Structures are given as C-alpha cells and as structure tokens.
C-alpha cells in the first residue's frame, strides 16, 4: 500500500522535488532548453517559493525549495511555466514533462545537508563534469543567487556546509537515481557505501531518510 502523502500547504516546510521529462528524453542536454528552464525557475522565485538549490540534468530536474503557496502549485509554476515558454519561445509542441513529481520533506539540518550534497553532486556522479561548480546548469556554479536555508535547517557549522557542496554524496549507488534500496519506507545504505567515520557532529546522518514517493499531480 502506498503511504499517505503529507498535505503540502504553505506551512514553511522545505522540500526537494524531482520531475522527469516525458519519456526521459534528454531535453536539457541542449543549452537553449536548460537555460530557459533555469530562467523559468528564477521567474517564480520569491513569489511562489524560496529557491535553495537546483540542478537541470539532461532528463530530469531536482529543486530544493520552500513553497510560499502549496507545494503542488509551486511545482506547477515551474513545470507549467516552462512548458508555456518552450512552446512560445522555442516553437515546441512536444510534451515536456512526465505527469506528477517526487518530493521529500526536509526534516532537519542534517537532512538538508544530505539533499544539498545530492543535488550539487548529481552531474559529477553522472560523469557530466569533474567538479560540481563546472556544471553550467546547477546552483553549484558560481554566480547563481539563492535563498538561504530556513534558520531551523541551517547546518551548525557553516564552513563545513560550504565544503560539503563540493563533496560526493555518500549514498548514491551506480545506476540508481533517487534511492539505493527500500525497506519499511526508508532508504537503506549498502555497507560498502557507508563512510568509515563521521568527523563532525553535524555530518549528514545516513539513516532515516524517507524514500521519495512518486505522486500524481493533476495540475502539472
């Protein structure tokens, strides 16, 4: 049975959302498409959501945001807004997005850090670049203005948090996009992928990260 999804209203919560292209087409491997997508994301920043992190991969996006409206409406602005502009500005009538999206509510500072690293390092793990800051369609690249994490989600050690942006995510396995394995509703980390030691009290915990559930968004 699929777990009941939290009702995501304008409650000040922060989420990482994931949405894939229709048929997993690599639309955002094209500069003009990826650039328009990022411009669309920034168009609604401040009015529909606070923008904390993002990455446009060839066939999907990850965004960490804090909605100012419902989460569904925030995602609709991104997906629907881009689809409208792609038709108008790129002359494309193709279906852009798969229906629905996946989301994960950020629980605390450690959870935020885990997903921040995941978003930043996705292009590196997929061999699209050698360093996170070299990927042009990611908030890891210098020059993008971002909203700071909500106070309750800020890591205790800010210097360590900045360093974490350029470190590899410790929970990604080859061939898996969003999860390693799932048991009892949680992500389980293979023993070989667990770090040998934790060096700081605010280092991201590797247990208790809820699995991102696919949901249908009728308005997307």
* Overall morphology: globular
What portion of residues belong to β-strands? Answer: 15-25%
Largest sheet: 5 strands, antiparallel
Which blocks of ≥5 consecutive residues have pLDDT under 50? 1-8, 168-220
Order of helices and strands: EHEEHEHHEEE
The total beta strand count reads 7
Number of helices: 4
**Rg from alpha-carbon coordinates:** 17 Å
Described by its quaternary structure, the protein is: single chain
Distance between the termini: 24 Å
Strand ordering within the main sheet: 2-3-1-4-7
Structural class: alpha+beta
Residue share in helix: 25-40%
Give the mean pLDDT. 77
Defining traits:
alpha+beta, globular, five-stranded antiparallel β-sheet, disordered C terminus, disordered N terminus, single chain, two-stranded antiparallel sheet, 220 residues
What is the topological layout?
Layout lengths: L14 E6 L10 H13 L5 E9 L2 E8 L3 H19 L11 E5 L3 H17 L32 H7 L16 E3 L2 E3 L24 E3 L5
Antiparallel strand pairs: 1-3, 1-4, 2-3, 4-7, 5-6
Question: What's this entry about, in short?
Answer:
This protein is of the alpha+beta class and 220 residues long.
């Amino acid at each position: 049975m699929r777990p009941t999804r939290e009702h995501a209203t304008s409650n000040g919560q922060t989420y990482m959302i994931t949405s894939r292209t229709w048929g997993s087409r690599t639309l955002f491997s094209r500069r003009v498409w990826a650039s328009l997508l990022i411009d669309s994301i920034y168009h609604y920043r401040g009015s529909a959501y606070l923008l904390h992190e993002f990455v446009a991969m060839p066939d999907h996006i990850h965004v960490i945001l804090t909605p100012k409206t419902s989460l569904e409406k925030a995602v609709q602005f991104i997906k629907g807004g881009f689809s409208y502009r792609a038709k108008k500005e790129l002359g494309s009538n193709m279906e852009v997005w798969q229906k629905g999206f996946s989301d994960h509510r950020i629980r605390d500072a450690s959870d935020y850090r885990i997903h921040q690293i995941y978003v930043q390092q996705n292009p590196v793990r997929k061999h699209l670049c050698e360093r996170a800051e070299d990927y042009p369609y990611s908030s890891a690249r210098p020059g993008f203005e971002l909203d700071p994490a909500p106070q309750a989600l800020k890591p205790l050690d800010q210097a360590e948090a900045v360093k974490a942006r350029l470190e590899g995510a410790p929970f990604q396995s080859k061939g898996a996009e969003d999860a390693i394995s799932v048991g009892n509703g949680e992500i389980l980390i293979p023993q070989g992928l667990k770090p040998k030691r934790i060096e700081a009290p605010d280092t991201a915990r590797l247990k208790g990260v809820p699995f991102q559930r696919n949901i249908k968004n009728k308005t997307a």
